[in-house]
Design a protein that fits this description.
Elements (H helix, E strand, L loop, with lengths): L2 H13 L7 H11 L11 H22 L17
Helix pairs in contact: 1-2
């Protein structure tokens, strides 16, 4: 898998994260639709999927924490986000 393919799958993953769609499906369906020759049995494919999900989880936690109203108080005793 080259860098462009990885970036496109990551962008699609991030853009559709809020929809009730399997996130693993993006990594399987997108290459099939665009007829990319990506070997899903290659040893580097599973670590790519893991990092894709870790990145999405990190983005979601940062977005949720920055939107938390308790964060604005800057006090850990406020009882809200502890980010």
């Amino acid at each position: 898998m080259d860098t462009l393919h990885a970036m496109l799958i990551a962008v699609i993953q991030g853009a559709t994260e809020l929809f009730p769609v399997s996130s693993l499906g993006h990594a399987v369906l997108v290459p099939a639709v665009f007829r990319w020759s990506i070997d899903q049995r290659a040893p580097e494919f599973l670590p790519f999927l893991v990092m894709l999900h870790v990145g999405t989880t990190g983005w979601r936690s940062c977005a949720a924490c920055s939107a938390c109203p308790a964060r604005r108080t800057r006090s850990p005793r406020a009882g809200g986000c502890s980010c």
